[in-house]
Design brief:
heterodimer, A: about 90 residues, mainly alpha, Non-ribosomal Peptide Synthetase Peptidyl Carrier Protein, Chain A, globular, B: about 300 residues, alpha/beta, Rossmann fold, seven-stranded parallel sheet, 10 helices
Chain lengths: ~90, ~300
């Protein structure tokens, strides 16, 4: 769980930095809040940026929107996805 | 993309939530005004220095299109318009990757011509209609040099036939190279360019897309496809400072023009206001403009270079 919290924290920073959400603080993003549609005000095209940032940071490729939908459902879902894919690809 | 919403089958599955106001104003902040030239000229200045200053001033104006440290990929860059574009970019400092599908000799010639003139170039083979080929090509580009600033989707083929006599291969090949080639190359390029938050994509269309031509149902359809693709991708990628435009060359002196029967080419001259065919260099001018920072408020547009044909 500690690992997951650490990952969630890393991901919050990644999201805020890559999407340049300067008016959002890490505490404002709850782990189960949906990342897209409401809340952070992100849209589908923002997702592209996140896909690229994730690839750069963790070496994980998100090939299509079905995978993306699952992964981006919430911060918690994203952390699970990253943890799983990291092991699979043997990324850092 | 909110999984809490009930699925509405009438909406595209990747529903776009486009918000009217972007809370993040920073997205649209400009690149910053160029540094202003401040300071005072010396009150007294000798003639030699004056001439030197004038020379420097003039050459800076001429070198408006400076692509130093930029990496460019030109598909179909070994011959014709592609070659002219490759040479023009390399001449102005770009590192050029010349893509070719079959004619290795021509590609190597273009590369060595660039190198002889002091430029930086290399050739990579890939059929743009082949997804695996293109992914390999971009894999090589990611390894070295690891960035791509300018993508010129110039690769194109012509298979003119009246529709009744047009084979499936004539149709498929033209659509595959001219349209699918955009899908394969831009898909890979977008990943790189989004990460860079910068890119210039230039596609090649044709007057046939707008006015049609007998014998070119396949070609004209493909080139009209290029326009729709260009306009859509421009909207998708604008927020990443990725500019997607098209150049529309008319009748240009290349191998492709040689393929047309002579009487057809002659007839076409009648329809051209300037009464001559264009040169590949004249097309490269428009490409240079769209590849440069002089076109940073232009996206989703078509620039036609046809001597007044349309």
């Amino acid at each position: 769980m500690e690992d997951k919290n650490k990952l969630i924290s890393e991901l919050k920073t990644l999201i805020i930095e890559s999407l340049q959400l300067e008016d959002v603080s890490p505490d404002e993003i709850g782990p189960d809040d949906p990342l897209f549609g409401n809340g952070l005000g992100l849209d589908s095209i923002d997702a592209l940026e996140l896909v690229v940032a994730l690839e750069k940071a963790y070496g994980i490729v998100i090939p299509d929107e079905d995978v993306g939908k699952e992964a981006f459902a919430s911060l918690s879902a994203l952390a699970d996805f990253v943890a799983k894919e990291r092991k699979a690809t043997g990324g850092e | 993309m909110n999984p809490g919403m009930a699925r509405d089958s009438s909406l595209p599955s990747f529903t776009l939530y486009l918000h009217k106001h972007h809370t993040r104003e920073m997205w649209w902040r400009s690149r910053g005004a160029p540094a202003s030239v401040s300071g005072h000229f010396p009150l007294t200045i000798g003639t030699k220095r004056a001439i030197l200053l004038l020379y420097v001033f003039l050459t800076q104006s001429i070198m408006d299109f400076d692509f130093t440290d930029k990496v460019a990929l030109v598909t179909g860059g070994s011959r014709g318009i592609g070659r002219a574009i490759s040479l023009a970019l390399a001449e102005r400092g770009a590192q050029v990757i010349v893509n070719y599908a079959g004619n290795e000799e021509a590609a190597q010639k273009t590369v060595s011509d660039i190198q002889t003139a002091g430029g930086d170039a290399r050739a990579i083979r890939a059929d743009v209609a082949d997804t695996a080929d293109v992914e390999n090509m971009f894999g090589e580009i990611r390894t070295d040099p690891g960035r791509l600033d300018i993508l010129v989707n110039n690769a194109g083929v012509l298979r003119d036939k009246l529709l009744m006599f047009m084979s499936e291969d004539d149709w498929d090949r033209v659509m595959d190279v001219n349209v699918k080639g955009l899908y394969t190359c831009c898909k890979s390029a977008a990943r790189l360019m989004i990460g860079q938050k910068y890119g210039k994509i230039i596609n090649m269309t044709s007057p046939s897309a707008f006015i049609g031509r007998a014998g070119q149902t396949n070609y004209a359809a493909s080139k009209a496809g290029v326009v729709g693709f260009t306009r859509s991708l421009a909207r998708e990628l604008a927020r990443f400072h990725i500019y997607v435009n098209a150049v529309c060359p008319g009748m240009i002196q290349t191998d492709m023009l040689q393929q047309l029967p002579e009487n057809v080419a002659e007839e076409m001259l009648e329809g051209i206001a300037m009464k001559r065919f264009g040169t590949p260099e004249e097309v490269s001018g428009a490409v240079l403009f769209l590849a440069s920072n002089k076109s940073d408020y232009i996206t989703g547009q078509v620039i036609t270079v046809d001597g007044g044909l349309t």
